[in-house]
Each structure stands twice: as structure tokens, then as C-alpha cells.
């Protein structure tokens, strides 16, 4: 399996740096091909702006999504953006790794999404009509690939529990898991979250690293979060509301978009999976 790890931390000697090394070593030991996009080390340009569309006439108004669509179609995206799209096409699985900063991803990673998710590639895909609202939420150009988050938090696990003051972690990560990953088609695996990262000693690091290795061993096989597919019949078109009667009574908000079972795409050959080889790693 080809794995792309998009890594957003400015310090290689950080906890995140150590966990990245653990993940990459395990994946390589399992026989996977791994590429890392180390955004700070790459000097990734976070803000999308006019410089992203160098062929746009100087006096033309910048309409980002139109310019993105035209540049994607013409093969005129900037080389850094095109390089990341090529990596996404190459990958069977994509991991986004970051420390939770202000309950979301660091700006540099958000800027990676803003710039790399070109229109026609990650959105604006498929038929848009009275009968169909595009290929998205489970369909799209990234369908058939898997994705997951590796996240570290300063807060405790209880702070992110069902009654925790920060809000449940699955709710906080919903805009990323559902809005950024499921939207263009990924099968999204449950996140790996290392809580209370400021209080990690050697023993806790060893335990966390082993849990992460286990998640890497099951990257190809773990059931994804059972988000409902947009075009699977659960939503009305064009209002895109969940049909009456779906969702357990009393369920509201993000949880409504969880269906009954796994929505994984039909099995594709993902190469090496957990098995005998895993025991050697
Ligand atoms: P580091 O600071 O590098 O390390 C954390 C601990 O791990 C240290 O004790 C270090 O000694 C230890 N460690 C590192 N490497 C190893 C190793 N190899 N072996 C053993 N131990 C090791 N937290 C929240 O919960 N919610 C928020 O909204 C939030 N917002 C933030 C916003 C900003 C701008 C910042 C700077 C922090 C925020 N935090 C928040 C805290 C943040 O999530 C944590 O600081 C971060 O997750 C820690 O990851 P790190 O890689 O930076 O850890």
C-alpha cells in the first residue's frame, strides 16, 4: 500500500516528530511505501492567494474557485500544489498528523487543504443538477482510498469525552473527518488521539507508540467511520437533508450523519496488510 503522511509540526524533536517516526517505521516495516509531506520543513505556503494562479490576467478579479477549476483543468496549478495532488493520487491511504491547536488543525495544514483541494479534483466533481448534487461525501476522486488523523492534545481524554467541557473529540474532528476527508471520497478511519500530551513520560510514550503501531498495522483493514453517503438514498435532493425517520430518536447534530454500518468501498488490493509480516515489525 502507498501511504502519504502529511505532517504539520514545526519541531522535529517534538512529541509529534517522535510519533511520526514511529508511524513511518512501522509502515515501512510492514512493507508499505511511505511519503511524508513535512509542511514546515517544505516551507509550505499556507495562504491561498493570487500567486496560486500565475496565468490569471493582472486585471481579472480573483474568484478562487473559478480560478482553481481553470488551473486544474489546464494543468496550470503551481508545482507545489500539483506535487501534492500527485502524491494524493499515488496514495492508497493518507494520514494527516498534527497537534490540536485551538480545537483544530494548525494553519499550515489548513492551508495545505485550501490550496491542494483544487476544484474539479476534490470538489465540484460529478453531475450537479436537480437530481444529483455532485460526487461527494463518500464519492469523488479520492474514493477507494483510506484516510485517518493522528492528533495530539494538551487536554485530558475526559475533557474531550461525551460530557467534557471541550466538547466530544468526534464532534471537534467532524469538520475534518467528514468535511475534509469524507467529502472528496475517502473512507475515514477513527482518529488516533494522544491526549494530555504535555504530561508524557517515557512509560506513557512507550504505550502510546505501541498503540500507534497497532493502528498502523490495521490501516488497510480497520472499518471506517460509518458516515452516510450523500448519494446512498439517505438524503433528500436538493435540500440535502437527512430523510425523516433516519437516525435514532433524539439524535441531533453531527451524529445524525452516522449510518448503520461500515461504508467502506468494495475491497481494493491494498497490498500488504496485517498478517505474518506484522509480527516481524
Ligand atoms: P511536545 O511539546 O513536543 O512534547 C510534549 C511532551 O512529550 C513533553 O513532555 C515531551 O518531553 C514529551 N516527549 C516528546 N517527545 C518524546 C519522546 N520521544 N519520548 C518521550 N516523551 C517525549 N491543546 C488542546 O487540548 N486543545 C487546544 O485547542 C489547544 N490549542 C493549542 C494552541 C496552540 C497555539 C498551542 C501551541 C498548543 C495548543 N494546545 C491545545 C496544546 C497542544 O495540543 C499540545 O501542546 C500538543 O498536542 C503537544 O504536542 P507536541 O508534539 O507539540 O508536544
- Overall number of structural domains: 1
- Listing every helix as H and every strand as E from the N terminus to the C terminus, the arrangement reads EHEHHHEHEHEEHHH
Question: CATH topology, which one?
Answer: Rossmann fold
Strand content: 5-15%
Task: Determine the CATH superfamily.
Answer: Flavodoxin domain
The major pleated sheet works out as: 6 strands, parallel
How many helices in DSSP terms?
Answer: 9
Number of strands: 6
- The rough form would be described as globular
Residue share in helix: 25-40%
Topology record:
Elements: E1 2-7, H1 15-29, E2 33-38, H2 39-42, H3 64-74, H4 79-90, E3 93-99, H5 107-116, E4 146-152, H6 169-182, E5 187-188, E6 192-194, H7 202-217, H8 230-234, H9 276-280
Parallel strand pairs: 1-2, 1-3, 3-4, 4-5, 4-6
Helix pairs in contact: 1-7
This protein binds flavin-adenine dinucleotide.
Structure in words:
This protein has 281 residues and is of the alpha/beta class. Helices cover 33% and strands 11% of the residues. Strands 1, 2, 3, 4, 5 and 6 form a six-stranded parallel sheet that branches. Helix 5 (107-116) links the parallel strand 3 (93-99) and strand 4. Helix 1 runs parallel beside helix 7. Bound molecules: flavin-adenine dinucleotide. Residues 9, 14-16, 18, 99-103, 152-155, 197-198, 200, 202, 205 line the site of flavin-adenine dinucleotide.
Amino acid at each position: 500500500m502507498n501511504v502519504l503522511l502529511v505532517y504539520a509540526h514545526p519541531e522535529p524533536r517534538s512529541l509529534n516528530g517522535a510519533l511520526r517516526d514511529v508511524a513511518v517505521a512501522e509502515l515501512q516495516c510492514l512493507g508499505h511505501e511511505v511519503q511524508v509531506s513535512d509542511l514546515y520543513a517544505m516551507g509550505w505556503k499556507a495562504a491561498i492567494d493570487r500567486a496560486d494562479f500565475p496565468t490569471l490576467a493582472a486585471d481579472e478579479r480573483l474568484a478562487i474557485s473559478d480560478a482553481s477549476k481553470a488551473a486544474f483543468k489546464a494543468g496550470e496549478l503551481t508545482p507545489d500544489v500539483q506535487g501534492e495532488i500527485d502524491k494524493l493520487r499515488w496514495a492508497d491511504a493518507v494520514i494527516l498528523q498534527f497537534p490540536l491547536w485551538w480545537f483544530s488543525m494548525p494553519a499550515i495544514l489548513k492551508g495545505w487543504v485550501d490550496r491542494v483541494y483544487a476544484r474539479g479534483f476534490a470538489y465540484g466533481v460529478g453531475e450537479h443538477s436537480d437530481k444529483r448534487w455532485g460526487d461527494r461525501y463518500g464519492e469523488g476522486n479520492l474514493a477507494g482510498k483510506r484516510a485517518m488523523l493522528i492528533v495530539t492534545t494538551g487536554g485530558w481524554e475526559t475533557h474531550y469525552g461525551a460530557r467534557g467541557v471541550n466538547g466530544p473529540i468526534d464532534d471537534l474532528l467532524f469538520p475534518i473527518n467528514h468535511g475534509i476527508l469524507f467529502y472528496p471520497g475517502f473512507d475515514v478511519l477513527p482518529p488516533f488521539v494522544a491526549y494530555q500530551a504535555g504530561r508524557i513520560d517515557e512509560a506513557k510514550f512507550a504505550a502510546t507508540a505501541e498503540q500507534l503501531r497497532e493502528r498502523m498495522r490495521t490501516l488497510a483493514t480497520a472499518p471506517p467511520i460509518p458516515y452516510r453517503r450523500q448519494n446512498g438514498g439517505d438524503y433528500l435532493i436538493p435540500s440535502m437533508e437527512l430523510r425523516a425517520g433516519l437516525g435514532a430518536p433524539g439524535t441531533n447534530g453531527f451524529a445524525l450523519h452516522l449510518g448503520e454500518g461500515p461504508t467502506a468501498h468494495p475491497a481494493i488490493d491494498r497490498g500488504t496488510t496485517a498478517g505474518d509480516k506484522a509480527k516481524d515489525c
